[in-house]
User: Fold this.
Amino acid sequence: MALPDWQENVEWQLALDDASPVLSRDLLKRYSRVANVNLPVPSSSPTYWKNLMLRKGGLKIMQRGLFLNNFGTNGGTLADVCFWYHPDSVVSLNTVLGASGVLNNPSYAVMAVVPINRGAHPSSRLGRKHAKAGDVHFYGIPRRIIESGESGGRLDTSDLYVRLRATPEKALLD
Assistant:
């Protein structure tokens, strides 16, 4: 079955290096509108295309309305989802230590730290979040500890990661 042009355009856009690794339902609709040169796309078409791409593996469902983009060479990962749960979260702890080879038995769950402001109550959204692709654990740490030191010494600034990620040294301290 040949895909209509707008569907091929969406897949091409999602395969670009600067495409979002995590997609919401609204973002997918926006991609389809832009791919169809702002002409209306029948409301059932993006849903049909999304379901087809879920079966083919181009998209991976995280939870209702949230998907990992697996079209590009660097497909979305569970660590990319942390930003959708907590916009200021920093992937750290066992995730960073396992990826850098410090841990000989790394965790399959992604672990991230979330800054907590002085005097503020910890968010009820901390803790474990279950997603279809795996679990994400959020730990609250005072903002002054997370942001201590130079940003180059505590955040991995390489182009390998789209979202904030701690350096292995900072992950050891967290």
